[in-house]
Design a protein that fits this description.
Number of strands: 29
Strand order of the largest sheet: 3-5-1-12-9-10-11
Strand content: 15-25%
Distance between the termini: 63 Å
Structural class: alpha+beta
Helix content: 25-40%
């Protein structure tokens, strides 16, 4: 499709004749997962007994390995190999691309004696059993020449510079607008390092079949993983068959591969047998990426009626010494509220810490924790209701670029959320409501997350039994990809869900961008719809061109598909009978989707509102979330059940960001203090009260041919701010340094004399 306008034409998904689109369908792969028979990467059964690799992490944050003694480890029972930088097989330099169109370059493991962060993999032990490998890994003796780690983010703030290739974005004259505003706010918030804490750690299994590497790994994007491994191994890209069929959570932390994949493939080639390598939970905290800390300065200037005259959010963040990743915590604000004078930008510090990278709702999750609390504070100064303040600053067009919105239902989310939640019962003066020992408060926040569409391909086939098979190099990180692809296929070809097979997570299948950034379902699904339409057309032409078909001689455009039957008016036959007779080897069709150039003429976002009620214990500083409501507008919903699961999961993550999640750095060693799930606290069931997510009816025909948009990260955007605002309403204490732990809250309560 060459234009967004082509998407307005009806198609099987938008007409939804069978009613499968939007239905709360159970997960396609659910029975396999709940019975423990879905093979995750480490659990795949290889063709012969595997060996087991265990990585050894660095005990310093910066410096070099001065001496290596592996004799004791090599002599340990069952040990097959011990590698360090001294004897690891040669690999091309980092970033090398022998094939210029590779989507990732070489990622060598154990590449040199240089240590760039604490916990960096610096050795590998491979043994016949995991227990033997673990025991031998403790016998690897490494001596270091350690440098002084540069890990103090706060101390380095004055040295921060603009990220490479970026500039501040200013509309109008912010300084003048702020100076002349009768009501102003200028406050700073900080957010800590956060870790992804996926249920499944990063893990890989590899073996070789001749000159071809077969690798199972837990990664969100198939093609970059395949290409990167091929470049690292120094082989052709087609000589790597990479599979990632089941992933136990990703959240952005598996958007790239790590040393487990490289080392498993290298060891399997060297030893001539399958090798498994997995990160331990403790190794995950340092060996993979994390969300970096931020400092955010928010300045708002308003007229006395609440209309913003000046608006600024500036973010300071950090990344690895060799990296450039920036937590764009200011970007989301550019499309949220109207104001004629605007200034947003970012500053970056490089530290001797593990790599920083994307984490669920990168930018929005951190940024809304400041801006949406600042709006609450401004509303209090103005004597306005926080919902009303946001509505008064609703823009007619995108406030940064002037583009029309494709769909924007933020005001509806705010108003309907307020009504459903009982917002009118909120008392604006803090500390007025008690329930026994608890002080009770209500808070709210707006939510926004961009909509994206990336190029993708897909293949559909039908066999002589009428079974439809969807094949795509897409992934499912628990978001429901298997299920929504099955729904699209079934609706497009008019067959029951039970006759649809979905094959994904395989580098030999038509490429798709993978799961992440809220672009997965839209991108993969649009290509699936295109493939389904092409197969539908081929089936219609087969039926109307077959003299033995009741549809013979008819117009292919008039063929209908429903309940496994193809028909023209009162002439029909089953799809299976047609294919069995006229195409016994089956039919296959491919389709692709890519964003047309005129898609950029619209501002396309997803929106929502969060409402929260908390209880605060003034004696202990304990906070309890009593209930939460989220109301969201995110295009046509493909699956009500999986979409709600994604939204509520994001809301729960927002509770964690507000109350518990954060990892401090030990300045002596440059290590993160929280190194497992006993020290790094995420919300559990007992931490969450009543929780509900409402999805508004919406079709955005400027987003993609199906009118859908992503939901996976929207639920996390603004949720933490709603919790923080509710805490203030409960007890009158503002904590601008997240997470809002009891010690910080108690300090404020004591200062207030409570």
């Amino acid at each position: 499709m060459s234009s967004v306008h082509d998407w307005a034409a009806p198609n099987p998904v938008t007409t939804n004749r069978s009613g499968l689109i939007g239905k709360g369908v159970d997960r396609y792969e659910g029975p396999l997962k709940v019975t423990g028979t879905a093979p995750y990467a480490y659990e795949v059964r290889p063709p012969s007994p595997p060996a087991y690799g265990v990585m050894v992490g660095s005990a310093i944050a910066t410096g070099r390995i001065a001496a290596v003694d592996t004799a004791e480890a090599q002599a340990a029972p069952g040990v097959l190999a011990v590698w360090t930088h001294l004897n690891v097989p040669p690999q091309p330099p980092r970033g090398t691309k022998a094939h210029p169109r590779s989507t990732a370059g070489s990622r060598p493991a154990l590449e040199s004696d240089r240590v760039t962060h604490w916990g960096q993999p610096v050795a590998l032990v491979v043994a016949d059993t995991w227990e033997n490998a673990i025991a031998a890994s403790a016998l690897v003796r490494l001596s270091y020449e350690a440098g002084t780690p540069d890990v103090d983010f706060s101390a380095r703030l004055p040295d921060a510079g603009q990220p490479p290739g970026e500039q501040d974005v200013e509309i109008g004259d912010f300084d003048a607008g702020f100076a002349t505003s009768p009501v102003t706010l200028d406050e700073t918030w900080s957010t800590p390092i956060q870790n992804h804490c996926q249920m499944e750690p990063c893990a890989s299994l590899a073996w070789w079949e001749g000159d071809k590497c077969i690798a199972h790994t837990s990664v969100q994007m198939v093609k970059p993983a395949q290409h990167g491994l091929a470049e690292t191994l120094g082989i052709d890209r087609d000589a790597v068959h990479l599979l990632t069929r089941y992933i136990g959570g990703g959240f952005g932390g598996k958007g790239q591969t790590y040393d487990d994949l490289t080392l498993a493939a290298l060891a399997a080639r060297a030893l001539g047998r399958p090798v498994k390598v997995a990160f331990s939970r403790q190794q995950m905290m340092h060996g993979t990426i994390h969300r970096p800390a931020t400092v955010q300065r928010v300045r708002l200037g308003a007229e006395k009626d609440g209309r913003l005259n000046a608006f600024s959010i500036m973010t300071w963040t950090h990344c690895h010494q060799d990296g450039t990743f920036t937590e764009h915590a200011s970007n989301f604000a550019r499309a949220l509220y109207a104001a004629p004078n605007r200034l947003t930008g970012h500053r970056l510090v490089k530290l001797d810490l593990p790599g920083a990278g994307p984490m669920r709702a990168p930018g929005e999750a951190s940024g809304t924790l400041s801006l949406e609390c600042a709006m609450d504070e401004l509303a209090e100064q103005l004597g306005l209701d926080p919902v009303e303040l946001r509505i008064r600053n609703e823009p007619a067009v995108d406030p940064e670029n002037g583009r029309p919105f494709s769909q924007r239902q933020l005001v509806r989310c705010l108003r309907e959320g307020a009504q459903m939640f009982g917002w009118d019962r909120r008392l604006p003066t803090p500390g007025q409501v008690r329930d026994g020992r608890w002080l009770v408060g209500l808070g709210m926040a707006a939510a926004i997350r961009g909509n994206f569409l990336l190029p993708a391909k897909c293949s559909f086939s039908v066999d002589a039994e009428g079974v439809i098979t969807v094949r795509q190099g897409m992934t499912d990180i628990g978001t429901g990809t298997y299920t929504v692809l099955a729904q699209i296929a079934a609706e497009t070809l008019g067959v029951p869900l039970g006759v649809v097979k979905v094959e994904i997570g395989d580098s030999e299948l038509p490429p798709a961008p993978g799961s992440g950034g809220q672009f997965g379902a839209a991108s993969a699904g649009s290509a699936a719809l295109a493939a389904g339409m092409n197969l539908r057309r081929a089936i219609a032409e087969l039926a109307t061109g077959d003299p033995n078909s009741p549809l013979y001689g008819g117009d292919p455009e008039r063929v209908t598909f429903q309940d496994g039957v193809v028909a023209i008016e009162n002439r029909s036959e089953t799809l299976a009978a047609l294919v069995r007779r006229a195409a016994p080897d089956g039919l296959t069709a491919e389709g692709d989707s890519r964003p047309p150039p005129d898609m950029r003429e619209w501002s396309t976002q997803t929106y929502g509102s969060h409402f929260c009620e908390v209880g605060v214990d003034p004696v202990t500083g304990e906070v309890r979330v009593r209930r939460m409501l989220g109301v969201f507008a995110a295009g046509r919903i493909l699956n009500e059940k999986t979409a709600r699961s994604q939204l509520t999961g994001g809301m729960i993550w927002g509770v964690g960001s507000a109350l518990t999640e954060g990892n401090a750095v030990d300045p002596r060693h440059g290590s993160l203090i929280g190194q497992d799930l006993a020290q790094y606290l995420v919300p559990v069931q007992a931490d969450i009260g009543d929780l509900e997510a409402i999805m508004l009816d919406e079709v955005d025909d400027k987003a993609n041919p199906m009118g859908i948009k992503g939901v996976g990260e929207l639920g996390n955007s603004g949720a933490g701010a709603a919790v923080a605002n509710a805490i203030y309403n409960a007890c009158g204490v503002r904590v601008r340094d997240y997470p809002i732990t009891p010690d910080k809250l108690l300090a404020g309560l004591i200062a207030k004399g409570m």
